[in-house]
Structures are given as C-alpha cells and as structure tokens.
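FORM 12-B: Structure-to-Sequence Request
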C-alpha cells in the first residue's frame, strides 16, 4: 500500500520509510508543504502521515486544502505538539488520528492498519458497500450497476460514510466534510441529507443501510439477506 509521509526531518523520514517498508507499506517521503501538495496532486495514496512543523508552513494547511477538495484520504498527524489545543485543531481540520513524537514505529503501523481497515472493499478508485458502488473520481453512485442521481452534498455525505463503512462517523465529521461546499450547513442539514440518501437507497434496492447511532453519528453497512 502506498503512503505519503510528510516529514522534514530527513533522518526520521528515512527511518520511517525503512520501518514502513518492513510492514508492507511503500512510502514516498517529502519534506515540505509544497512538495506534499505536489505529491498529492500527482498520485493517490492509501493514507498520509503528516508532520505539522514544516520548513515552509504548517502541515495543517496541507490537511485543510485536502479536505476542502473533499479528499477523504486518511490522515495521521505526527507531531511534537502535544497540547490538547493542537490535537483538537488537528482533528477539527480533518485529521483521522494523532501520534505525538517520540513514538514507537509499531504504534504508527498499528494505527495505520486501523485507519486502513475498511469493511467496504476499496476497489481502485471505487468504494463498495453491498451493491452500492461509489466512483470516487467520477463522483458517481451506482446501485446494482444503475447510476443514481444525488445532490453534491448528498454525494459528499455518502462518500464519507462509505469511506468509513462499518465504522461510526460522527455528525461533526460529516458537517466538517460538507463545510466548504457552497451554502450553509444548517443545524439539521446532515439529518436531511441522511434522510434523502436513505430513501433513495431503499427505493433503488440498495443492499446497504445507513444506521443512526443516537448521540454519536452514522454508520453505513451492508444489509445482509435475512
Ligand atoms: Ca518537523
């Protein structure tokens, strides 16, 4: 699996490349925010390991740009900043996990495996849950090979649920994912999109269901035959 490691400490970068390779990850290492943006524009990565303190800026800027493009590639933030405020900022800006330096390579590998564990198959550029397929490049949804038409925002909500299928996605994360698309994200907007998605998925014979986990968020999972 191909990873992008954004780390300006060359020694640590080399150590990570070697250690990750031993765990079956092929890592491209870049040392600046600019190189990270170029790498992300040129290639698709299974996950990104992102240092925050970079010589030409803040790793969080790279993260924000990524999420603004509605790219939901899992991001693990790696940093010496251990304050609660920095952690909250990183997670609010769309990081999926956080590891404070110094850390054990084993822990990084374990966390990457957790981030990449997706019950929904990741088939190249497509995500699949049951008979629902989401083409992440064309941004087109199919149910049993029949194209479905959803609004931009509904598609964005479905994408984040499908990228984390089988796992609970907090309502806050869904809202953050919508942020940046035009218009307001009203307080009950997410519920409205979920309601519409559920209805259309059910009407089109989808073998996947969006569950509400009260007080926590949402989860999409394959609907097993009874
Ligand atoms: Ca650094």
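FORM 12-B RESPONSE
SEQUENCE OUT:
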């Amino acid at each position: 699996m191909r990873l992008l490691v954004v780390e300006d400490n060359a020694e640590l970068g080399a150590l990570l490349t070697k250690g990750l390779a031993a765990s079956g990850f092929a890592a491209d290492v870049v040392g600046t925010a600019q190189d990270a943006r170029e790498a992300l524009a040129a290639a698709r990565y299974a996950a990104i390991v992102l240092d925050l303190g970079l010589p030409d800026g803040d790793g969080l800027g790279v993260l924000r740009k990524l999420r603004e493009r509605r790219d939901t590639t899992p991001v693990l933030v790696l940093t010496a900043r251990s304050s609660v405020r920095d952690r909250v900022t990183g997670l609010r800006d769309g990081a999926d996990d956080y590891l404070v330096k110094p850390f054990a390579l084993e822990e990084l590998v374990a966390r990457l495996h957790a981030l990449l564990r997706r019950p929904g198959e990741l088939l190249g550029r497509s995500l699949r849950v049951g008979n629902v397929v989401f083409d992440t490049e064309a941004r087109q949804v199919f149910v049993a090979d029949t194209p479905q038409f959803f609004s931009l925002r509904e598609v964005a909500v479905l994408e984040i649920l499908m990228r984390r299928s089988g796992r609970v996605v907090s309502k806050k994360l869904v809202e953050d994912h919508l942020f940046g698309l035009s218009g307001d994200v009203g307080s009950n907007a997410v519920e409205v999109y979920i309601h519409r998605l559920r209805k259309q998925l059910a009407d089109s014979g989808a073998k996947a269901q969006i569950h509400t986990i009260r007080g926590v968020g949402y989860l999409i999972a394959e609907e097993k035959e009874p």
